[in-house]
## 1
Amino acid sequence: MKSLFVTATDTDIGKTSVCAGIAHSLKKSGIDVGIMKPFACGVKQKTGFSSKDLSILSNAANVCDPEEFVNPFFFPIPTSPYTAAKNLGVKIDIKHVTKCFRKLNKIHDIILVEGIGGIMTPILKDYAIIDLIKDLNANTIIVTSSKMGTMNHTIMTCNMCKNMKIPVKGLIINNFDSTGYPISELERDLSVLTNLPVLCSLPHLTKFNLADFSEMITSQVDISTLIN
């Protein structure tokens, strides 16, 4: 089995929800899945993990690994890791991130890693999320949306992964914008234009429910194929 990196075409696309749904599905299938979000930015929670995303993911996978492993770098401002580190005077150590990943990999069968923003979100001057995916040697899925502009963003993301020889298992469309593309057209066109399978399309939900979200994913995707 190979770990899975959940990336996206942009920020606020629904990576955390998708990642949580997959984690829950893997756990239900009997796979010991660990979770990791190497970089998180935003408002710090008052209790539990600093990042709300980590709380969601840990609950979905039913794990309680140390925060310093699952989230090596948290920045209490909503921006890229590169900008946050510059503003706060923090030095980002990629070797430390990969070391934490290896430690988690020894504890669990696989690690489900959630990125931050899109694949070109900067971490260091010459190092972005796409470079981290390469260094972790993980399979990848790309979460995209139905909003206008998604064609451009998705095709660019897929082409970058192709150029970097990153194995992409497919696309997941998160339909949170009902004013965007019709899903049937988007599925048809993206599969042709990217030469990648559209693994599933998730409907707009007014409130996230882990069990329902997980069931929607597993009803459309053979989860085991994402980690092989």
Note: The beta strands are 4-8, 33-36, 39-41, 73-75, 110-114, 122-124, 127-128, 139-145, 168-174, 198-202.
## 2
Amino acid sequence: MEKTQGAERSGQRMLEGKVAIVTGSGGGIGRDIALAMAREGARVVVNDVGASLSGEGTDDGPAQAVVNEIRALGGEAVANTDSVADAAAGQRMVACALDSFGRVDVVVNNAGILRDGFFHKMGDDQWDAVIKVHLYGSYHVSRAAANHFKEQESGCFVHMTSTSGLIGEIGQANYSAAKMGIAALSKSIALDMRRFNVRSNCIAPFAFSRMIASMPTDTPEQRARVDRLKEMTPAKIAPLAVCLASDAAADTTGQIFAVRNNEIFLMSQPRPVRSVHRGEGWTPQAVASHALPALRAQYHTLDRSGDVFSWDPI
């Protein structure tokens, strides 16, 4: 198989001997991560239910097509078409890895759907579908792998979060809540499992994919933004995911990264910004007259992701 420049310099592929499960890898970001991990020596379980962007329908073609690509490169891969929203799916995916390759070392939680809508118009079905695939799905697959990672005292989780949750976005309450939940899930896994040499990190990817293709283009500004986002291909996300899954990132856990074209960001995590103290305690009136005025200068603005990442992709 072809090697990356770093691997060529070192003579050793970064994921040699490792087995990775990549959910939602029949296309987009997941496909490029699966291919990149295979190029770096990983044997890959390619999971994709073959659903539409809204989560409807199934098709085993996408997963098998990526398996065929990996095999054409000289790598090893198997297809899995379980839905991550199913509580038993994670167990079946891990069993697939163990049955096919004898171990599991890496879980990439990438599977996702969108069912956008303004919060005041959102239905329970829209909320449940997105939470189940993104947040429950990340939990199901991670939990299934956790005991194996614990027993072998090694393992790595890479979860896909989003600036829609970390910063904010209009019309995506379900997606944003799930993605913020995934960031907290990753941090909890990192804290709970570091004693077993198990790592967990997040990536907030900027990439033109089926999800971005669904964004509205009703105004010139929206069309211009989508055109800029088209420059960010899914392949730009894969190098960070591969590195985080490798032993080269052995000291990296509990972090949140973002990738935007050729830029990699380390994202902040909530910490106290400023405090006020009142020795005699607080009344509602004192909060209004003292606490809020003292804290107001440090209020966070009501930003969307595009307000913070406002420059053209580099």
Note: The chain has one domain: 5-266.
## 3
Amino acid sequence: MKPQHWPLYGLRLRTPRLELRLPELELLDDLASVAADGVHPPADMPFTVPWTDASPAACGKAVFQHVLATVANWSVRDWALSLAVLHEGEVVGRQDVTAKDFAVTGEVSTGSWLGLAHQGRGIGTEMRAAALHLAFAGLGARTAVSAAMTDNPRSLGVSRRLGYLPDGLEVTAVRGAPVTLQRLRLDRARWEEYRTVEVTLEGLDACREEFEA
């Protein structure tokens, strides 16, 4: 695919084990299939928007439509980069980097999921490290924020290993019940101190203006 009119398709984030890229249609179909196969036990709900409370086919369709929507609705003032994560050439999950008024705030937010079959191998930490490298080293971000439910130790552990600090609590409704979220914040100095994953970027210069970076 020649990304002449949407150069973000040429962006690549690489770590020792992973490649992160905006998926074209065939790769997006593979990503949707990973979602359809499950990303968490049915009794749990790690997302504030419970999109996985649906049939496998509906979950796959939702992922497919969501990623296409991030491209269609992209704005330099409100963007969402939704990357497929590949391990040894196989799609294993998704890593999002989003921002509003990035040129003013210098702040990004991250979110992600991994297929159940690929969890517990440190991939979640490595793919978030890649996203943080894009934000801080590639785009010149000043801060990165995230959040996780207080009963989600895996997500909180990833944030802790990467240097995030607690940034307060908030309560939201999920599945008709209150849940507590731990907000997390990482500034450039902490990122520099805690970075251990080697990351390379390819194709960023061609699409830098899309981020207002």
Note: The mean pLDDT is 94.
## 4
Amino acid sequence: MSTFRDWAQLLRVSALFTVPGDALAGAAAAGGRADLRTLRAIGCSLCLYEAGMALNDWADRGEDARDRPNRPLPSGRIRPGAALGAAAGLTGVGLAMAARAGRPAAAVAGALAATVWAYDLKLKHTHAGAVAMGAARGLDLLLGAVVTGHTPLRPAVALSSAALAAHTYAVTRVSRHETTGGSSLAPFAALATSAVISTGLVLQGLRGRGRDVGAGAAGSVLAYWPDASAVGGPARGSRLSRGLRLSRSLTAPALAATYGTAAGRPYLHAVLNPSPPLTQRAVGGGIRSLIPLQAALAAHAGAPALGGALMALAPIARRVSWKVSPT
């Protein structure tokens, strides 16, 4: 009989911690508040992500029998029909949750679900596969943006979505060589991509241009900071206020630099030695580094407190990945 650990391995539960940040970063970029609709968007994202994991292994069960016979399906620990049923059920639940969040969310979730199924069933082993994966992450962030009720198609949303999509595209290209290794080009391209994204966010933050929704989100629960002028009188409040503003201005570039380091180190190792183990580590590191990227994007959108909160997921994801691989 299948065990909880079997299903945890099939569904890659350690990678789940990279999902909530998509919707939250999208809400921050749109200048909205996190509310019940945002939670429904996160629930939809989690369901569709897990549906994709189950469907991926169902579609690849023949290939895995040759290259990864210890996975739950080729080893017989989970029946193929059960995996396919789980994918269909999770997709249905995810779409229902999106529908409860409103028509815009339902439309984006429908496009996201179609992208996930198309990738797993048809596009994965084609040149369009990595593009589809990147599009899925971009749509996931857009899902969090549209549920806010604010105008989602603003520069902050477009840039955040593009950054997530580019990162995911690069990781997917590296994952093509997980079992065989031998390619330095894919991890080098991923290293360059993460360096460009990280450097761009750092420079943008240092120039003070990374908070194009900051004024509109100042009262948001996503971007709260204490009122320094009410602490210890005007003089002390003024000094404390300047300190808080400085802290806010440094949070975004610091998180961007953290992302660049987290993503770049495993990619560099795979460039220098493109063996299957190091390539797999590069893929896992690329997946987990989505968390600091989401945190940096939220901070640049005017929600530094949210960015710091998202970073709390990083050590949890790392610890769980020691027991259940995210790839």
Note: Residues 209-232 have pLDDT under 50 and may be disordered.
